[in-house]
Design brief:
Elements lengths: L5 H17 L6 E2 L4 E2 H17 L3 H14 L6 H13 L9 H4 L4
Helix pairs in contact: 1-2, 1-3, 1-4, 2-3
Length: about 110
């Protein structure tokens, strides 16, 4: 039987939900990246999935959260909770990840 660490599972759940949210994202062009917002999010998701594939789910989680913050992608309350759950399972201190609350859609 295959065992998947809870931290990996929680990170996958967060990324899967971000992928869902990205489907309704605008096609606004981001000059600094040369891609639309939707293309950029797909790029971040793909990169994060690569980290997870090679058992670097903590690095992947950090990567996607920072990238979401950098492009000012807003997420809903469910995504925030999934992110916090994943961070907790990965052993991160939540008080050092205040940027998550700044991602909240208003």
């Amino acid at each position: 039987m295959f065992f998947e660490p809870k931290a990996k599972k929680k990170t996958r759940e967060f990324v899967k939900y971000i992928n869902f949210l990205s489907q309704t994202c605008s096609n606004e062009y981001i000059d600094t990246f040369g891609l639309t917002k939707r293309q950029l999010l797909q790029k971040f998701i793909t990169e994060t999935e690569e980290y997870i594939k090679y058992n670097e789910w903590g690095v992947g989680l950090e990567h996607i959260l920072v990238q979401l913050y950098e492009v000012e992608f807003t997420i809903d309350e469910k995504a925030i909770q999934l992110a916090k759950d994943a961070l907790h399972e990965c052993g991160f201190e939540l008080d050092k990840w205040k940027i998550i609350d700044e991602l909240k859609a208003k």
